[in-house]
Design a protein that fits this description.
2 domains, 340 residues, tRNA N(6)-L-threonylcarbamoyladenine synthase activity, 5-stranded mixed beta sheet, Gcp-like_dom, tRNA N6-adenosine threonylcarbamoyltransferase
Length: 340
């Protein structure tokens, strides 16, 4: 089955073709970072308009790179939520119209299920991870620990009570004067920082439970930055201390989640999953436990069409599809999904 995937949940336009026999055939991504940089964050209306401009050219490009004609598609998948309602409607409208014209099934995909399944999309030397496992979904909009009993059967173990980890990276970078988007800039600064010169708390690790809280870390960084000489090296040292605090907190909670779920396999997805120090920390943690951790390739940690094409293909293969109505769900609990 050859499935076209469309991702337009926020500020990146992603398109891909996934073949259940041949794997990922092609993918393309357009980022709106430059568009939103002057505003210091995503402007929803501008994001929607840019998806309108970029989506059809990206579909044509991806189909050409895949070597397929549009009439050879067997299905269309698109992000139906969660996300910005206007941006979601752009992708949903195009996907539904295309599926209707081709007389093929279409399905709306949960954005976070796409992230969760991204590490399963490609071959792994140790084999693709099979449920049950624990997933850490960590991005600018979400920080969740999920027990995956089967594809489509998810139990929320813990989540952030305030800022997501990626959001905390972005906001912390901004208060230290780093340019948008702040998260990658802060991680780059952390590579230049000296460990141990600043020490920040590991929030909510001194009590039971699997929930997170990162807003307090921003306050600690703000105070440290205000009371410092605000030199480039100090900025790097504080960035390193902040990153260490977030990484340690995520690793501690992941270990607890594996214990709670009785699993030894951890799957990590979302934009923060590309962080080099987080990858190393979780690899060491799971190895010591006799388990394993699986990541998507860095290009598929951030929003992309490939993960939507893959998740949609699994559901379409299972005979799931929806009516021709253009429907999106900006707020969508993943626990409500139908099992595959």
């Amino acid at each position: 089955m050859k499935v076209l995937g469309i991702e337009t949940s926020c500020d990146e336009t992603g398109v891909a073709v996934y073949d259940t026999d041949a794997g990922l055939r092609a993918h393309a991504l357009y980022s709106q970072i430059a568009l939103h940089a002057e505003y210091g964050g995503v402007v929803p209306e501008l994001a929607s308009r840019d998806h309108v401009r970029k989506l059809l050219p990206l579909i044509r490009q991806t189909l050409a790179e895949s070597g397929l004609d549009v009439n050879e598609l067997d299905g269309v998948a698109y992000t139906a939520g969660p996300g910005l309602v206007g941006a979601l409607l752009v992708g949903a409208g195009v996907a539904r119209a295309l599926a209707w014209a081709l007389e093929v099934p279409a399905i709306g995909v949960h954005h976070m299920e796409g992230h969760l399944l991204a590490p399963l999309m490609e071959d792994d030397p140790l084999g693709r991870p099979q449920p049950p496992f624990v997933a850490l979904l960590v991005s600018g909009g979400h920080t969740q620990l999920v027990a995956v009993d089967a594809i489509g059967q998810y139990r929320l173990l813990g989540e952030t009570l305030d800022d997501a980890a990626g959001e905390a990276f972005d906001k912390t970078a901004k208060l230290m004067g780093l340019p948008y988007p702040g998260g990658p800039q802060l991680a780059a600064q952390a590579e230049l920082g000296r460990p141990g010169l600043f020490k920040f708390a590991r929030p909510m690790t001194d009590r039971p439970g699997l929930d997170f809280s990162f807003s307090g870390l921003k306050t600690q960084v703000l105070l440290a930055w205000r009371n410092s000489d605000q030199s480039d090296q100090t900025r790097a040292d504080i960035a390193r201390a902040f990153e260490d605090a977030v990484v340690d907190t995520l690793a501690i909670k992941c270990g607890r989640a594996l214990d709670a779920a009785g699993c030894d396999t951890l799957v990590v997805a979302g934009g923060v999953g590309a962080n080099r120090r987080l990858r190393a920390k979780l690899a060491t943690m799971t190895e010591k436990r006799g388990g394993r951790v699986c990541f998507p390739r860095p290009a598929f940690c951030t929003d992309n069409g490939a993960m939507i094409a893959y998740a949609g293909a699994l559901r379409l293969q299972a005979g799931q599809f929806e009516s021709a109505a253009v429907k999106v769900t900006p707020r969508w609990d993943m626990a409500l999904l139908q099992a595959v």
